[in-house]
Design goal:
alpha/beta, four-stranded mixed sheet, elongated, disordered N terminus, binds iron/sulfur cluster, DUF523 and DUF1722 domain-containing protein, 2-thiour_desulf
Length: 349
């Protein structure tokens, strides 16, 4: 039987491991603040003039809002591969079954140097313990999807993913990755931010030589958050946790981690949020005054009808929890899955 205390995945990178397990019972040690997450980013999005034409693609949300909450790990794969700026524009070309990265005008093949840089950089990244990545859309190096793909004769034949993005995904299959353009969509942006912080907690969990009992606690604290996304998957995760003490521990943890991140990928719909809010209210209702209960239900229904943002019933619930403490409910990551400022004014959905 494998050692259940072994770190079950190589995705924790260089995150410092805790030297003692005593008192670990709760993987968050009574709090959810694990410090700023580490986020990789295409360097041109930070306003650096590293594009092929000597320009940049500054993203205002990234530098004015997100920058306050994350540690950046910037990279420009094409600069890193020694192509300099300004440089020839690149494009993806399909030759037989292989996709190549070539200079659009001269046809010079840059595939090998890009892959070599990816290898070096991703080794470096492993030691930085990344919790997410923001990529520049449509770039033949950084683009996550919908990057134009050409035939040798220059005819466009479809779309693909950039060379760097492909390597990144292969090396860190669970890491949340998003493109700059998709961050303009409120739902996609909030989902991405939520997954960054969830992945940070998962990385922290893995870095602390978790036991089956730790997994029980981890799941318990995420139960409502997972249920708001996909109730059926949340139940399936509960079954993995229920069997955590049997069989191959490493396989169980890997299966849980994969399903945990997959569960959060799906947008949490209004109806599911309302159901979770009612569920949490159920823990308090016997101790609440009738008027408070009616007010709470009113705000949940207002939210369900999209007349008010989620932050309203959530704030009210938190207010009642301060008066009527309930450890199980207060331990739910659902109540604050990420810093409140990152969701300000965005939750009318
Ligand atoms: S998209 Fe990627 S490769 Fe292109 S300039 Fe930006 S960081 Fe560099």
């Amino acid at each position: 039987m494998k050692n259940p205390n072994r770190n079950p995945t190589n995705e924790t990178g260089g995150q410092p491991r805790q030297t003692t397990r005593s008192g670990l019972g709760d993987p968050f040690r009574g709090g959810l603040d694990l410090g700023k997450p580490n986020l990789g980013i295409s360097l041109c999005l930070l306003g650096e003039k590293v594009r092929f034409n000597g320009g940049h693609c500054h993203n205002h949300f990234v530098t004015s809002v997100m920058a306050r909450y994350v540690n950046w790990i910037p990279v420009c794969p094409e600069m890193g591969a020694g192509l300099g700026t300004p440089r020839e524009a690149l494009r993806l070309v399909k030759r037989e079954k292989e996709v190549h990265l070539e200079e659009s005008r001269t046809g010079i093949d840059r595939t090998v140097v890009l892959h070599a840089f990816c290898e070096t950089f991703l080794n470096f990244l492993s030691n930085k313990n990344p919790h997410g990545f923001i990529l520049k859309r449509k770039s033949p190096s950084c683009g996550m999807e919908r990057v134009p793909l050409y035939r040798e004769d220059g005819h466009r034949i479809g779309v693909s993913e950039g060379v760097f993005a492909q390597n990144l995904r292969k090396r860190f299959p669970l890491i949340p990755i998003e493109e700059d353009g998709r961050l303009n969509d409120t739902n996609l942006r909030e989902n991405f931010i939520e997954r960054i912080y969830a992945y940070q907690r998962w990385s922290f969990f893995l870095a602390n030589d978790p036991t089956p009992a730790d997994l029980v606690v981890f799941h318990r604290r995420h139960k409502m958050q997972l249920t708001a996304h996909q109730p059926a998957v949340a139940k399936e995760l509960g079954r993995i946790v229920g069997a955590a003490g049997t069989g191959d521990w490493q396989k169980r943890v890997d299966a849980y981690g994969e399903m945990f991140m997959h569960c959060l990928e799906q947008h949490a719909a209004t109806g599911k949020h309302a159901n979770v809010l009612y569920h949490l209210l159920g823990f308090l209702k016997d101790r609440m005054q009738g008027e408070d209960k009616r007010e709470m239900i009113h705000h949940i229904e207002q939210y369900r009808r999209r007349h008010t943002p989620l932050s309203v019933p959530l704030a009210l619930l938190n207010h009642h929890l301060r008066r009527l403490p309930h450890p199980w409910v207060q331990g739910q990551t659902y109540l604050q899955p990420y810093p409140a400022d990152l969701r300000m004014g965005q939750l009318l959905r």
